[in-house]
Amino acid sequence: MNQPELNRRQIFGLGRKRDERARAGGVGRERGQVVRVERPAMGSSFEIRLPASTPGAVDLACRALDLIDALEAQLTVYNDESEVARLNANAHLRAVAVEPGLFGLLETATALSAETAGAYDVTTGALSEAWGFVRGPRRVPDAETLATARACSGWRHLTLDREHKTAVFDVEGLRINLGSIGKGYALDRAAAVIQGHWWPTGALIHGGRSSAVAIGSPPGRPGTRWEVALRNPMEPDSPLGVFRLRNRALGTSGSAFQSFEADGKTYGHILDPRTGEPGQGPLSVTVLAPTAALADALSTAYYLLGPDGARAHAANHPEIGVVFVVESPARGTPEILTFGVGEGDFVREQNSLD
Fold first, then answer.
1. Is residue 56 exposed (0-12), middle (13-18) or buried (19+ Cβ within 10 Å)?
2. Which of 53, 170, 284, 305 sits between 20 and 30 A of 218, alpha carbons compared?
3. SS3 of residue 57 by DSSP
4. pLDDT (tens digit, 9 = 90+) per residue, 296-324?
5. Is the separation of the CB atoms in 244 and 346 below 8 Å?
6. Are β-strands 241-245 and 277-278 bridged in parallel, bridged antiparallel, or unpaired?
7. Please, which residues have CB within 8 angstroms of residue 305's CB and are 6 or more apart in sequence?
8. CATH 1.10.3980.10 matches 83-169
9. Do 140 and 262 meet the contact criterion of CB atoms below 8 Å apart?
10. In whole angstroms, what is the distance from residue 337 CA to residue 101 CA?
11. Closest among 344, 354, 333, 43 to 211, alpha carbons compared
């Protein structure tokens, strides 16, 4: 994408500057007039693009952004009063009632954990804290600290009761952290606000430019798709291609911009739940999916599974498309691997590798 966010794990930041900017004008490759409304949230900048002809466009975008603010307050691990923080503090003591939307999100996350044999897991917040990826400082934990964090991590320690909408942990110290799916979930909920507007409209919604949802077509181009560039992790100003989206979402994961060095070794921020240590993945992986929550979660899982594991999983999910950007030392520029990507979904730049 044009500019992936630089701190995906710390998406639930506090202390936002509540300045919204609405402006009309041609944007990127969009031929019609659009209104763009931006607001900082979840440690990123969320933007909603709507046709300028949409009645009440700015108010509609602001209502969607207000919902994102409310979801941040619910999901953040940086505020002890959030619902997720209270769940983390109490669920090892008793079953805790969970708001239906959050309960559904946890069900989605645990289902993905089972499907990916634990490569995806939102119950590894203790590991993120041990490595300093939550509040810092970033560090390599000692063996005892890492072992303790691993012992209280893992989706099998979480039990969800669908009938009563409750959650319970069977181990003390387990921490849910929704940094790998929360932003996509917020985008999906914002998209529902747009889709519920009395005047049907297309829209492009993104959060930090690594997650996006496209509704309908861009203004002035009925039947076509919104276009989002795939950033080159090695040369940010040279896009590798363009995604074309209509009623679809995408999510991108990578560690190129979030890492630290210790004793001459570089550690990325995407932790492998199966080992408790930073995973060694591609430069980036982008997933196309029906929802932004699914796209975000699978991009994280596929980063850890690698191309072969991702291909095997996606083969059973025809609704999923995947684009890997991997290093190609022999030729000095990234190599692009795609599978499950339909015709017209992704167009490579002419100077990218075949």
1. middle
2. 284
3. helix
4. 999 999 999 999 999 999 999 999 999 99
5. yes
6. unpaired
7. 116, 119, 313
8. yes
9. yes
10. 35
11. 43
- 49-75, pLDDT tens digit by residue? 999 999 999 999 999 999 999 999 999
Higher-confidence position of 208 and 73: 73
What separation, in Å, do the N-terminal and C-terminal C-alpha atoms of the chain show? 19
| Contacts (Cβ under 8 Å, ≥6 apart) of 13 | 42, 43, 78
Please report the pLDDT score of residue 12 as a whole number: 28
Nearest alpha carbon to residue 184 among 161, 154, 204, 206: 206
Phi and psi torsions of 279, nearest 5°: -80, 155
Which amino acid belongs to residue 333? T
The C-alpha angle with vertex 271 and arms to 321 and 127, in degrees rounded to 5, equals 140
CB 16 within 8 A of CB 44: no
Q: Which residue has the tokens 């190129």?
A: 256
> pLDDT for 248-291, tens place per residue?
999 999 976 677 888 878 888 899 999 999 999 999 999 999 99
- 169 forms bridges with which residues in the sheet? 158
pLDDT at 38 over 50: yes
pLDDT bucket at 8, cuts 50 / 70 / 90: very low
Residue 107 and residue 117: Cα distance in Å, rounded? Answer: 15
Name which of 172, 272, 204 is nearest 48 in CA terms: 204
Identify the bridge partners of residue 46 per DSSP, sorted by sequence position: 39, 207
pTM: 0.90
Q: What letters, b where the CB count within 10 A reaches 16 and e where it falls short, cover 21-39?
A: eeeeeebeebebebbbbbb
* Under 8 Å between Cβ of 186 and 206: no
Give per-residue pLDDT as tens, 110-141: 999 999 999 999 999 999 999 999 988 999 99
β-partners of residue 227 are 244
Decide: 211 and 251 in contact? Cβ < 8 Å: yes
